[in-house]
Amino acid sequence: MGGTIEVNNLEKHFVVTERAPGLKSALATVFKRHKKQIAAVNKINFTVPAGTIVGFIGQNGAGKTTTIKMLTGTLYPSSGSINVAGFNPSERTQAFRRDISVVMGNKAQIMLDLTPNDYLQLIQVMYDVDPITFEQNVNEMTELLHVNHRLNVQARKLSLGERMKVEFVAAVATNPQVLFLDEPTIGLDVQSKRDIRQFIRCLNRDKQTTIFLTSHDMEDISAVCDQMILLNHGEVIWDGQLSQLMQEFDDYRYLSFEKGTAYQADQLGFPIMEETFDRVTIKVPAAEVNVMTNRLIVNGLGTAVTVQDLQLDDIILEVFNMEAQG
Amino acid sequence: MKKYLAVAQTSMKSVLASKSSIFVLLAQALIPTVVMAYLWTSILPGHSAIQGMTAETMIKYYIGVNVVNFFVWYAIDWELNDDIHSGELSNIVRRPVNMMGYYFSRMLGDRIANLMVLAPIILIILVMHIKHIFSLDVIWFGQVFMTILLAMLLWFAFGYVIGCLAYWFENLFFVLIVKEIVVSFLAGYYLPLNLFPEILKNLSNLLPFQYFSYFPIQTLLKQTLPINWSIGILIGLMWLIALYGIGYWLNRLGARHYSDVMG
Q: Where are the transmembrane segments (chain B) (predicted)?
């Protein structure tokens, strides 16, 4: 089984209370609350083979964090089944909790009064890892992440990047089969992001750890992921290899140009991806780039034309738009 | 067991990490006793007494309150409330530890750190009373130890039950404030229970709170007959089993509710 993740017909509903603005309605809610059930995750299915790095992508409120919380046993599903490394997370067995690790980019797990060394010692005992192996792991990883000189400083005094790196070390030093990363590079500087991406790649290569990653930073995804799952309004809208998705849009380019004197949108003949006061970006089949560039200049529709491949974030936005248009 | 000792150790390290918390601990230990000493010497000047209690016995009582508090008083309910509402609880339920065991270890570590901070004061008192130490009544010492241990466990179990209410209440602040006042009063923190009117004495006999403070203090001050002490320990143990059961059950229900409302 290894670190395989299998999700079948997974659903999660939340009950939320709503009220109209104003004091009167605030008072009314004291006596009666208007409750509403929302489906945060709606019958999703996917499989992540052991040793894969999967990017779990979605816009805010798509249900990513809720899914991670169900996969890690923090939330109980409303229905459906989950199997993570051979365990049902809802049972919250000690063995399951020892076999997974979670790093939440927007929530510190390290105790701020303690030093990273204190925290790591606690983790070693809590997860019952052989002390010598643990120390070796920690030494290697702290060196790789450039935080080895900061392990005796109170966590409160560490920068956000250093703190995140320590969280990574703690999560990985327990040798989990599955590592869940929720926005691990949020708020980090360029160097820290690079360190963490390199770290994720090394970890996956050397230990075949399954890594389940959510991030709004498409550089994270394109740099490390093999598989990608797109989630929209609680539903999976795309699941496959990252290379396959990139290939699907490989035949298109973005042409960006300054509006010419004779510019008229309806004469372009290709979909407009972005339009500002003086610039326009259109999506053109790769084979027609030269023809279109000439047409823009000759007909005075545009000047200063630039051509670019579709980046991963462009492709993902397109997939979301296609989904919205049905 | 090792992992819970490690949790207790980190809790100790947290307390000892800042000088300000050490200063606060010392102030917490000294100020209330000094205030109460001043208050009761003003209310009961000379040899005047209320129901046989002079200013001197009152002061001894408040010293007893603070001694017991140093082993017992830990805001587990506030901590649980914060952790549930901030989502910090998720960090704990994902770890391979039992939740109740985790919080108990934190309390234990915190209490031990408190004692370490107070060690110099305790040492001075011991040196001042060195001749009494050699004539220490071992049975009495054992009784004090057991009542304080019972008080600690009961306080934890009760605080845990109250803290679990945070699974359902979005704002537990006022519940916790009111609970603190009522429990402190009925535990004999403000006044010895023997000064209470009959109706309140009867009420406190039906509740577990006297075992948090009054009962251990009476044991400490050698005011309890052996038979009453034994009955007190038995009733306290029954309360402990009941509160532990309620806490366990509430936590199970609450974990599911937490799951239904927290995104």
A: 21-39, 59-76, 112-134, 140-165, 172-191, 229-250
